[in-house]
Each structure stands twice: as structure tokens, then as C-alpha cells.
TrEMBL record:
InterPro entries associated with the record: ADH-like_N (IPR013154), ADH_Zn_typ-2 (IPR014187), ER (IPR020843), GroES-like_sf (IPR011032), NAD(P)-bd_dom_sf (IPR036291)
GO cellular component: cytoplasm
Protein family per UniProt: Belongs to the zinc-containing alcohol dehydrogenase family.
Organism, scientific name: Geomesophilobacter sediminis
Annotated CDD domains: CAD2 (cd08298)
Alphabetically ordered keywords of this record: Metal-binding, Oxidoreductase, Zinc
EC number(s) stated in the UniProt entry for this protein: 1.1.1.1
SUPFAM superfamilies assigned: GroES-like (SSF50129), NAD(P)-binding Rossmann-fold domains (SSF51735)
Top-level EC class: oxidoreductase
Taxonomy of the source species: Bacteria, Pseudomonadati, Thermodesulfobacteriota, Desulfuromonadia, Geobacterales
Cofactor: Zn(2+)
Pfam families named in the record: ADH_N
Official protein name in the record: alcohol dehydrogenase
Length: 331
């Protein structure tokens, strides 16, 4: 099969021919249709996440059909369309797993990081960590739901019942989350890079009540803010815009150093917290919710062999919404 593989920092992904994987116990062999591109993929190839398997097939927002099954697979059959997220396996035994916090499992393994992912024509995955894809979503529109959507949804849950919600960094996750938040009756304030008029127009078109630069203050104090951009300087900026008792949620897996800020910004029972990974319960809840909204994803499509160009486009903010690697065009 064809696969785009990562061999180490500073080396572009290589299009290579590799054997089609064989499913082991509790694994499904998947024929990949599409795989969403995520900022986490950039953190991996830029070596900001430092423990990938090498060589590695990246990609963790996989939409595929089941081709074959290993022993012990239940609930799926050949031809079923499934989605594969970032969380690839857990130990199911540690304190975190037993308490419903499998996203914090110390032995967790992640798709497209520890496990070969979806920048390839085939992949294998543990069936227990796969989700049925909601009907009505074409492959390329479904792919961003599997990380941008799931992480955004978990961030929204951590934001509580905030009526006035700020979103810092209006990319793949925020363009999904704004739709869910507005459907829930919240007011949404979008923050982009200063001067990014195009991004602010896109945010308003997706439902934001207001859009401005990351250094701006919104017209009303925020009850909560979610930071998706990996810029630590946004933490004090978000605190400055957040009312007493509010929460600032850091939704990324990696962020640059947070600069010192005066205690006054945190005082007043404000909270700063992170969101790590996802649970399978998050996936089940969000994928049931998405068709009700209904969530609409804006997608820039790239061919498999264009994965490096897609990564550069993401790095440079060259598109609105989400990027998707189309492996098998069925839409």
C-alpha cells in the first residue's frame, strides 16, 4: 500500500510502498477513505511531541471501511464505515481508567503517534476504540469530527454553562465548536491573530456573535474561554477578558511557555485548566450530538501525496476550517 511516513525531525514525509498491515486480536483492518489533519500532526513532525514511533504513519482522524477482522472483534462487520480517533488504546486497569478518566491513562497509546495512522491506504485499529460514523456525513466532512470535534466538545464541557464563551484560535476545532455552542444558546466571541480580517469574517459566517484580534477585549466579559492556538501568551490575554469566577480552558496538547502575569488576572476565583485527549464516552456523545445541530465542517482537501503541502498550509494558516487528506475519494 501507499503510505506517507515520518522518519524524524526536519525530514519531510515520504511517500513509500509498505506492506498492508494484518489485524491482530481485537483489531480491524480498515480501508482508509479520508484522514483529517490536526495541529497535533504538526507538533509531531516538528518534534514538539518527542516520543513517536519511527518510522511513523501519521494521522488520527480516520474515516474508513472495515475490510477484515482479527479474533475477538464484536459489533462490526466488513463494509461498516468507522472513525478512528487519537486515543488508540488504554490499559483498562489503572486508577484513571477505572474512574472514567481513560484519557489520562499513563499507558495510553495514540493513533498516528504510537500506532500507525491514516496517512495511508490501509490501517489497523483496536475495534474498541472505533466509532460508527453518523449517516449523512460524507467522508471528508466526517473526518474533522474525530479530533477537532471531539476535543472541542470536551473543552466545551469543561467550560461549564458559560453563557459568554470566547474561542482563541479559530481553526478546525473552533469552527465546529461555535456551531454547537450557538445551538446550545450561548454567545460566542472569536479571537484570531491580530489583523486576520479573513479569519474574523469566517468566524462570523460560522456563527460567532463577535470576532476580533487576540489582544482585543470582547464587548462583554467572558464566562469562559477556550484556547486552541498553541501560544502560551494567550492564557493571560484570555484571563484578562474573563469575568470573576470564569474558566480558561487550554485545549491543545502542546503550548509554548506561558509568560508571567500578575496575580490580579487570576484572582476572583478564575480557573485555568487543560484538556487532555478524549474518552470514548466523549466520542459517543459528540457523534450523537453532531447530526442534531447539525454540525457542518468546512474542508480543504489534499491528496495523500500532498500531505507535506497540507502540513505547510496548516502551519501558515492558508485555509479556513479543517484540512483533510483524501485517500480514496468516495464523496
Amino acid at each position: 500500500m501507499r503510505a506517507m511516513r515520518f522518519h524524524g525531525k526536519g525530514i519531510p514525509l515520504r511517500l513509500e510502498w509498505v506492506p498492508v498491515p494484518t489485524p491482530g486480536p481485537r483489531q480491524v483492518l480498515l480501508r482508509v477513505h479520508a484522514c483529517g489533519l490536526c495541529r497535533t500532526d504538526l507538533h509531531i513532525v516538528d518534534a514538539e511531541l518527542t516520543d513517536p514511533k519511527l518510522p511513523l504513519i501519521p494521522g488520527h482522524q480516520i474515516v474508513a471501511t472495515v475490510e477484515a477482522m482479527g479474533d475477538g472483534v464484536e459489533g462490526f462487520a466488513p463494509g461498516d464505515r468507522v472513525g478512528v480517533p487519537w486515543l488508540g488504546s488504554t490499559c483498562n486497569e489503572c486508577r484513571n481508567c477505572r474512574s472514567g478518566r481513560e484519557n489520562l491513562c499513563e499507558k495510553a497509546r495514540f493513533t498516528g503517534y504510537h500506532i500507525d495512522g491514516g496517512f495511508a491506504e490501509y490501517a489497523v485499529a483496536d475495534y474498541r476504540f472505533c466509532f460508527p460514523i453518523p449517516a449523512g456525513y460524507p467522508d471528508r466532512q466526517a473526518a474533522p469530527l474525530l479530533c477537532a470535534g471531539l476535543i472541542g466538545y470536551r473543552c466545551l464541557r469543561m467550560a461549564g454553562d458559560a453563557e459568554h464563551l470566547g474561542l482563541y484560535g479559530f481553526g478546525a476545532a473552533a469552527h465546529i465548536l461555535v456551531q454547537v455552542a450557538r445551538w446550545q444558546g450561548r454567545k460566542v466571541y472569536a479571537f484570531t491573530r491580530p489583523g486576520d480580517v479573513k479569519g474574523q469574517e469566517f468566524a462570523r459566517a460560522m456563527g460567532a456573535d463577535w470576532a476580533g484580534g487576540s489582544a482585543d477585549l470582547p464587548p462583554e466579559p467572558l464566562d469562559a474561554a477556550v484556547i486552541f492556538a498553541p501560544d502560551g501568551a494567550l492564557v493571560p490575554a484570555a484571563l484578562r477578558a474573563t469575568a470573576k469566577g470564569g474558566t480558561v480552558v487550554c485545549g491543545g496538547i502542546h503550548m509554548s511557555e506561558i509568560p508571567a502575569f500578575p496575580y490580579e488576572l487570576l484572582w476572583g476565583e478564575r480557573v485555568v485548566r487543560s484538556v487532555a485527549n478524549l474518552t470514548r464516552a466523549d466520542g459517543e456523545e459528540f457523534l450523537a450530538l453532531a447530526p442534531q445541530v447539525p454540525v457542518r465542517t468546512e474542508v480543504a482537501a489534499f491528496a495523500l501525496e500532498e500531505a507535506n503541502e497540507a502540513l505547510n498550509a496548516l502551519r501558515n494558516g492558508a485555509f479556513n476550517g479543517a484540512a483533510v487528506i483524501v485517500v480514496r475519494d468516495t464523496d
